[in-house]
Amino acid sequence: MVGGIDGVQDFRSASTADFRGALVGWIDDRRTELKPPYRDHGTTDEILSHQRGVQRLLFDHGFMRWGWPAEVGGLGGSPLFRAVLGEELTSRGLVHSAAFSMTEVLGPAVIAYADSTLAAQVVPSMLRGDETWCQGFSEPEAGSDLGSLRTTALRDGTDWVLQGQKLWTSWAHHAARCIVLARTEGPETGSRGISAFFVDMDSPGIGVHPLETMAGVDEFCETFFDEVRVPAGRMLGGQGQGWQVAQHILACERGPIFWQRASWLLYHLGEIAESADPADSEAQHLIGSAFADVSALRARSRSTQLQVAAGDLRGAESSVDKILIATADQAVFNAALHVLPGVVEFDDSPIADRYRKEWAYSRAATIYGGTSEIQRDIVASRLLHLPKVP
Ligand SMILES: Cc1cc2nc3c(=O)[nH]c(=O)nc-3n(C[C@H](O)[C@H](O)[C@H](O)COP(=O)(O)OP(=O)(O)OC[C@H]3O[C@@H](n4cnc5c(N)ncnc54)[C@H](O)[C@@H]3O)c2cc1C
Fold this sequence. Notes:
Layout: E1 4-5, E2 8-9, H1 16-29, H2 31-34, H3 44-60, H4 80-90, H5 99-113, H6 116-127, E3 133-136, E4 152-156, E5 159-170, E6 177-183, E7 194-200, E8 206-211, E9 220-231, E10 235-236, H7 242-254, H8 258-275, H9 281-309, H10 318-339, H11 343-346, H12 350-363, H13 372-383
Parallel strand pairs: 3-6
Antiparallel strand pairs: 1-2, 4-5, 5-9, 6-7, 7-10, 8-9
């Protein structure tokens, strides 16, 4: 400790090892307070409410602020502290890895592209868990082909007026804000005619309808925008820069956040390994092979974290991380299916509920953030420069 800052320990020049040491001590002292109150998977309501409580505690003790710039309520220090924080919480099963999907995916884009007064106002509320944000990109016929989206934004005086429909908007029914991609130029302009807006979810004209996934979780929604007025100052970047904002968000969504998810996977793989029969060679093979997949992801993710901390967020490279997470995620929960036969499929116990939902969610790993086919296409064309099939 170099001295105090805002009443908390000062890590501005600390190493990640020192930060980790202090954090782990703090977590150990508060295990009971940080532990989820539910033993099963938890509903979306329960997960988000627990996550908000943990974020508030972390923010008020400074840990949620380290690694973020002072201009948006952070305390500075290495951005790697954010990865350490996520790792130490998820590897103990204290918060769901989804907790970091919003802060680490949407936070950096708002800092980079929002008006600085707006960013200073909203980012601290998001970090403290006082508000949840969501990402309004996908539409009924615009997922992989995002550039063909049809939601429009027309200028009217000092406002933009949004009209259209989004699909698969995670946590929209709990969100206070949404980053919405909308077309400010005609359809013939493709991705060049798209702008990004930071929209208040309580604006008149927004309709949100939750959808239940095959895991029985109401994570995402259909989100409708019917003549929704958005002040011009809420545009992220300039007019027509929405694609740039989207690429920034996708680069975060496909790469840096998987460090936390890998820790969450290791936590579960540890539980699975403890339940496995040492004489069951198939179980040992599945667990060993899943461990190798998670280790490959962690090795890749470590270099991604170092690159991003050095200010080098890469677009196409993040597709490699995205392919690796999909493989590792499915390998871990496939191992669970074998080690807990019949339990995952039919049992009503809290552990069955947790593994059933995690297994089902792992199927989505080849879809969310861009499908594995699209990621392989990006790797082939933009990293390996392979010729296109005529
Ligand atoms: C759990 C989860 C959470 C999500 N959260 C959000 C969110 O918060 N906000 C948001 O905006 N979206 C979200 N999504 C949506 C997600 O981004 C899209 O589902 C994804 O981009 C794929 O789009 P699509 O579903 O329209 O499938 P499509 O694009 O219709 O693809 C269907 C199939 O065709 C294949 N395909 C399509 N084009 C090609 C091609 N050119 N080459 C090869 N194969 C191709 C795909 O790989 C896929 O297998 C979420 C999805 C999931 C599963």
